[in-house]
Design a protein that fits this description.
Keywords: ATP-binding, Helicase, Hydrolase, Nucleotide-binding. By secondary structure, this protein is mainly β. The protein is 0% helix and 55% strand. The protein has one domain (1-40). It has a three-stranded antiparallel β-sheet, with no helix packed on it. β2 (14-24) and β3 form a beta hairpin.
């Protein structure tokens, strides 16, 4: 997945847009926008 891609968060039961991705110690972290809640 890359910045700008859309994904689905199963634990929130809603779509999200990936804003940025960062890898730290072999773990990938994503910052996402939840349009239904209009929150990051």
């Amino acid at each position: 997945m890359r910045s700008g891609d859309w994904a689905y968060l199963q634990n929130h039961n809603q779509p999200c847009r990936i804003l940025e991705m960062e890898m730290l110690w072999g773990v990938t972290f994503y910052r996402v926008w939840l349009p239904v809640e209009d929150t990051l």
